Amino acid sequence: MPLNSVIREKRKEAGLTQEEMADYLGVSAPAVSKWEKGSTSPDITLLPALARLLKIDINTLLCFDTEPDKEEVSQICNEIMDVIHKKGFETGFLLTMEKIREYPTCGHFVHTAAVLLDGAMLMTAMSPGDKMKYSSQIMSLYEQAAKYGDEQTRRQANFMLASYYTRMGETNKAQKLLDLLPEQSAIDKRPLLAEILITQGKTEKAGELLERRLLMAVQEIQVLLMKLSDIALKEGHSQDTTKISERSAKLAELFCLQEYDTYVAPLQTAIDQKNVSGSITLLNSMLTSLIHLGELDNSFLYRHIPMPRQTKDIRKKMIKVILSELEDSDKYSYLYSNEEFGELIKRFQSV
């Protein structure tokens, strides 16, 4: 609760008017009114007397002992996402850091905010330098969350840090963090919850619960297949790499993922093999599919999952991010001298 709200509520609980409080503290009634509106704050020398008058300690007055509950965390994060959408990532990032300074020891909030920024950064085209700067600060937030969060938050934050270290090639640090995590996760209670919801006639909620689990499982399998494809390539089994990527594409089609998802694994294989013509063909198909990006809830498998309706904005952002990656990442350098690749970049920049 902000300082102005504490002053207002505790004054009312004490049965004092603004004028009476002003008299006790030797200030004007308009000054007290401004405190309660949040436009100004009491002078630091008045805080002890103000706390005694309101019959609370300094910590309570300054909100040192209070943390946002889950509903408040959700409200703050919605506000941040709205700012990012309307004013850009930088403004949203600064707002996030401002909010975290208010609740620096609330591990759940710090972790939730870090995950939010992580996701928003993926959807924002930025230079490698900016991405490195923000990634470093987001990693610090995960460390902060791991320090102050409960057991579940610590595990989640350490997992995210391990993911960062793995991408950075610092595998020893990643391994140490992963060693802190339990070998087996908790029993998945969602199928049982869905069964209970079905018996209660709440089929919409049950459907959404199971569909989200199915979608997550398919995406997890896609990641595993891409890792296996990478191993096959490193071991010199290029034919196995191609077969695995083909199965990944079929899996995406079988489980009604976006057309975009059917190109991810084959493209990764083409990139690993530095297959110029194959890479350009797949990139063209992938980017074209984003122009016609549909809604998952049009599928019979995911019709209970509410989907965001800003499809046009999402696809533009995804195309912009992919183009930025194509131009900045060294892994695409084998394409830079190809004229057809340059034409592809120009064509989709105008979308």
Automatic annotation (TrEMBL):
Keywords: DNA-binding. It comes from Lacrimispora defluvii. Residues 7-61 form the HTH cro/C1-type domain. SMART domains: HTH_XRE. This is Helix-turn-helix domain-containing protein. It comes from the Bacteria. Coiled coil: none annotated. InterPro entries: Cro/C1-type_HTH, Lambda_DNA-bd_dom_sf, TPR-like_helical_dom_sf. SUPFAM superfamilies: lambda repressor-like DNA-binding domains. Pfam families: HTH_3.
